[in-house]
């Protein structure tokens, strides 16, 4: 069985919902379909939560009412029969009454998670009802019964495997199995989510759990481009990526994929395809276990990076120094992305700054600490084995006009990363594209 995930824009209008329904039923083969919320909905739910945190129920109600009108208009348009239109509109009214109920209670991050979950709950119900109206044998398998995270907020893969395999076994003979992306329960059974963009992660977790034939991520672009098309001119689709290359690109900011979604597919060896709902015939990108020798694939950027430098002529060469430095980060549950060392100092980058003050206070015991904020990691991904001679020269040449704060190369065979200031992000990315991909 294949697992197909459709993102927000792919289910963003009644027309799109109909097109997705046609696409998933065209060959009559059973499929697991993971849906995001309609585009813009999760952002609106975040906005509603912000009003509620700020104890502004009127502000929240105004947005809830506006969103409700939009959903009712969609429901009026999508269904052909009075029966399914009425049924769905009643469901939507209940959903929005539920959202309004949060304006009357004490609001915490627990309630926010529940509010954020409603986007996927609404989109999956709307599409399921449409497929049922069309006579397609469809069942909605609630993600809240299948996807769970553990005490470290990591997906509990054994649980997910058990629940998804059982859900399919207990519901034989359906053509379409629908579930919600993004939403899950945590180790305590509370409603939670897999962070923004998490529907990709759901699809890959389920795909790995049921050992799917393929995981397809359907979005609004023809696969992974060789640079961020929102930032750089003349980007091109990349037709094939190794799992490791895709994982690096996702982790380092290629928005088309959730940062950690490739890991489960990689471990299960299930190929992932990135496809375009607006142009279903386009080839997209295939992610699998193959390496294209000597090929530089793509550039991605991760923003809001902080660089911390610790300088200590006294301590650095003493063995155990780096361990002490890393232990400080570990004790504050802060992971490090880039590391560069020299005889007199070490620089590291982090993206989670919630413990920055505690970390720097402790690091000061070991040397002089300098912090640079508003940095960006620009990462170039491809086959960078040492016999691919000359690649680093080319990448560095591209950046001859740009002040580079750190360079990391050799950590893996697939990645060279540059740390630059935020204001240099666009020209760095463009320069790398112009140099690496214009040949
Ligand atoms: P969805 O809602 O379907 O999950 P996303 O907005 O999360 O879609 O991801 C698709 C978007 O990712 C594209 O429209 C594009 O603007 C952006 N993007 C950023 N970097 C890349 C890249 N390297 N290749 C393709 N798309 C990218
Ligand atoms: N709806 C969620 C979000 O907007 C999850 C997703 O779309 O992948 O982040
Ligand atoms: Mg996405």
Structure commentary:
The protein has 439 residues and is α/β, with parallel strands linked by helices. It folds into 2 domains: 2-219, Acetylglutamate kinase-like (Carbamate kinase, 3-Layer(aba) Sandwich), CATH 3.40.1160; 297-436, VC0802-like, CATH 3.30.2130. Helix content is 39%, strand content 22%. The chain has 13 helices and 16 strands. The protein has helices at 14-25, 41-53, 57-78, 82-101, 109-133, 157-170, 199-209, 243-251, 262-268, 321-331, 356-363, 391-398, 425-436, and strands spanning 2-6, 31-35, 138-140, 176-180, 183-185, 191-193, 214-219, 240-242, 272-276, 285-288, 296-311, 336-341, 345-350, 368-382, 404-409, 415-421. It has an 8-stranded mixed β-sheet with strand order 3-4-2-1-7-9-10-8, sandwiched between helices. The chain has a 6-stranded antiparallel β-sheet with strand order 12-13-11-14-16-15. Strand 15 and strand 16 (415-421) form a beta hairpin. Helix 2 packs antiparallel against helix 5 and helix 8 (243-251) packs antiparallel against helix 9. The model has no long low-confidence stretch (mean pLDDT 95). Bound molecules: adenosine-5'-diphosphate (ADP), aspartic acid and magnesium ion. The site of magnesium ion has 3 residues, from loops.
């Amino acid at each position: 069985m294949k697992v197909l995930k459709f993102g927000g824009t792919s289910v963003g209008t009644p027309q799109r919902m109909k097109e997705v329904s046609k696409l998933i039923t065209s060959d009559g083969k059973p499929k697991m379909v993971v849906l995001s919320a309609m585009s813009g909905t999760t952002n609106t739910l975040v906005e509603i939560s912000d009003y509620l945190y700020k104890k502004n129920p009127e502000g929240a109600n105004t947005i809830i009412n506006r969103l409700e009108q939009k959903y009712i208009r969609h429901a009026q348009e999508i269904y052909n029969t009075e029966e399914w239109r009425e049924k769905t509109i009643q469901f939507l009214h209940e959903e929005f009454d539920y959202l309004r109920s949060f304006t009357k209670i004490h609001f915490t991050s627990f309630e926010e998670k529940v509010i954020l979950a409603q986007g996927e709950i609404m989109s999956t119900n709307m599409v399921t009802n449409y497929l049922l109206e069309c006579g397609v044998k469809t069942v909605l398998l609630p993600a809240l019964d299948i996807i769970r995270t553990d005490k470290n907020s990591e997906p509990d893969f054994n649980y997910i495997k058990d629940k998804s395999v059982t859900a399919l076994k207990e519901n034989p003979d359906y053509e379409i199995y629908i579930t919600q992306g993004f939403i899950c329960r945590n180790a305590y059974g509370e409603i939670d989510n897999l962070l923004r963009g998490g529907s990709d992660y759901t699809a890959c977790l389920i795909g790995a759990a049921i050992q799917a034939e393929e995981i397809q991520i359907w979005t609004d672009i023809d696969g992974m481009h060789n640079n961020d098309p929102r930032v750089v001119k003349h980007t091109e689709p990349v037709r094939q990526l190794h799992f490791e290359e895709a994982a690096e690109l996702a982790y380092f900011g290629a928005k088309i994929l959730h940062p950690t979604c490739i890991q489960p597919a990689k471990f299960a060896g299930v190929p992932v395809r990135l496809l375009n709902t607006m142009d279903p015939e386009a080839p997209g990108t295939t992610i699998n276990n193959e390496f294209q020798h000597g090929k530089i694939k793509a550039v991605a950027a991760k923003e809001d990076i902080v660089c911390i430098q610790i300088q200590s002529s006294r301590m650095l060469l003493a063995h155990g120094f780096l361990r002490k430095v890393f232990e400080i980060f570990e004790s504050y549950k802060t992971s490090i992305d880039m590391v560069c060392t020299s005889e007199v100092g070490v620089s590291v980058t982090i993206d989670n700054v919630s413990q920055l003050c505690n970390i720097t206070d402790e690091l000061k015991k070991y040397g002089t600490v300098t912090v640079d904020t508003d940095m960006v990691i620009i990462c170039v991904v491809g086959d960078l084995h040492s016999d691919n001679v000359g690649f680093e020269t080319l990448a560095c040449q591209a950046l001859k006009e740009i002040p580079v704060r750190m360079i990391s190369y050799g950590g893996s065979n697939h990645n060279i990363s540059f740390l630059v200031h935020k204001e240099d992000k666009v020209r760095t990315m463009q320069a790398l594209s112009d140099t690496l991909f214009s040949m």
